[in-house]
Amino acid sequence: MELTTMEAMIQGEAKLWGNIFAFTDSMALRCVLELGIVDIIHSHGGPITLSQIAAGIDSPSLNIDNLARLMRLLVRKDIFTTHHQPSDYGSCEALNLVPFILMQSHPELMTSWLCLSQCVKEGGTAFSKVHGCEVRDFAHKSPKFNKMFNDAMACTAKLVAERILWGYRDWFSSINGSLVDVGGGTGEMVAKIVKTHPHIKAINFDLPHVITTAPMQLGVSHIEGNMFEAIPNADAILLKRVLHGFSDEDCIKILKNCAKAIPKKTGKIIIVEHVLEPNGNGPFDETGLVFDLIMMLLAPSGKERTELDWKKLLKEGGFPHHKIIKIPAFPSIIEAHPA
Ligand SMILES: C[S@@+](CC[C@H](N)C(=O)[O-])C[C@H]1O[C@@H](n2cnc3c(N)ncnc32)[C@H](O)[C@@H]1O
């Protein structure tokens, strides 16, 4: 066998081992959170030894050898470092993903992955095959699951909100009238926008059962309704991580209602969604494909879309002009105009 063939075989085999054991990364992360290691390191406030971490873990029979082996892997994976690094913005943000890690690695979601092949064979969500109902109904029945799910969504939404406000700040300054956040949940995003851009008249629009739980926010009006029926009139519309949960047909209906709600000449919609680039080399391109599978697992008609998919949807929904603005975050901003 030629050396190059041998090298290629070894590389292929190594990649396969990596894939076989990919799940151990999320399991090790979960373990670290369950043991409270992140909090121990943070509350220590400086470089910390293994024995100090061990002392912080609540266990009378801690196996420090096992702890060392766990930490060794996570250092190798760049989750922790053996060298002191001054705390910066990046590491603070990473902490905010804790609820998301806990949700994704929770048995109730992990078991869904075992039904992935069934999803491919028959369609339908893997979650419903395991639990007999969709996520929304399951959350309705289980307050614990509901909290876990909402906390996970909230922590990613917070992260994205910060990046949008930073990456798209000039545009928010240029809004001269009203902005409605369609499917805005409890209104955190528009509340953040008006805080930095108080000249905007902000409306948070969502289903009645969501709006009833929405806290009063300075400068935000909450309006309940159904986006498939009508959307409140505004100069601009924000649709953040809403359309990826719906089929193309439903998205077109929503977009047509958006087009009716904004001025034909000057109106604009801002869609915050991931734009799939299956062969891209960007930092989030592979994660985008993973999120697409997560949508397959959890959302009956949900999917992530490529730029071409977005272009077709927008055109059919009454928005022939669009521009994609990359921000330093997993989703991009897709700005679209009816004229
Ligand atoms: C994935 S969440 C996104 C929430 C928020 N935009 C964010 O980025 O965190 C989708 C939102 O759409 C809302 N929604 C679903 N169907 C709706 C409808 N028919 N009319 C209005 N809002 C709806 C849900 O209640 C939920 O708050």
TrEMBL record:
Keywords: Methyltransferase, S-adenosyl-L-methionine, Transferase. It holds the Pfam family Methyltransf_2. It comes from the Eukaryota. Residues 20-84 form the O-methyltransferase dimerisation domain. GO terms for biological process: methylation. The keyword Iron does not apply. PROSITE patterns: SAM_OMT_II. GO terms for molecular function: O-methyltransferase activity; protein dimerization activity. This is Uncharacterized protein. It comes from Carya illinoinensis (Pecan).
